[in-house]
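Hi R.,

Here's the chain you asked about this morning:
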Amino acid sequence: MDRTAADVQARLATTQGFGELVNALRGMAAARSERARARIAGADAYSRTVAAAIGQALALLPESDAPAPSAADHRPGPSTGEALWLVFGAEQGFNGGYTERVLDALPTGTPAVRTVLLGEQAQHIAHVRGLKIEAHAPLVAHADAVIPTSERLRSLLLATLAKRPAASVELLFGEMGAGNHFELRRQRLLPLDLATLRAAPEQAPRVHQKPAELLDLLAGEYVSARLARATLHSHACENLARLSAMAAAHENITKMSSTLQDELRRLRQEAITAEVVELAAGLRSLRRQSDAAAKP
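And here is the predicted structure, written out as tokens:
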């Protein structure tokens, strides 16, 4: 059925209204991404500083006396041969399939992968996919909430491991790179690789407690630092993906609006032409009637 000018006008108004919404989401995503970028350097430095402190603490102990930290909240538990994956998805929608990309990066095989899923939107998509998850939690809507969120995630991780220990804990998250690019990363969180962290400090640090106790405290801080870093990078990547999706949507809306405006002009021109033709036909009819009346 042919559309009328009124129909096209209504659709154009709807499209333009949707364009305003996309522009708002685009601006919000850009602001959040930049805010997260500004904090990533600090999060990375924080993680490196704690790692260096662990290396110094390890140097205070003979290598043979430096076991993995013994506190229950710093190790995955007795080996079961299974890995527990901490997966950082998206907290909010309109992200161009970011969560789908993260979930597709999960290892596959038998038995099913043990998963702690983070992000509200990620939880909904996992439910649609029928993905079995052991626990879930929201992430952050803005970068300022990263530190308390990392502590909340550590508590969730500890509770999950207390119910069912794992051989290791693996992280899956988006990591920001140079420019407007990011990559999905798989990194081991637990057990800590103390052999890699061990370093020979130029000068022995001054400590006021037993090196083993200090190491245990630093290990917990390091886990929190790694979780904070992954949360912040994931938040930045989510908003960068959203920004890209909204840019594509804006381009499509612009093309659609242009097409509808062209169609509206055509329909209006056709309507004007039809009126002119009808008016000309009426004038001819009047002339014939007048000529007929003027004949004797």
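One quick note: The domain at 20-249 is CATH 3.40.1380.10 (Pyruvate Kinase; Chain: A, domain 1).

Cheers,
M.
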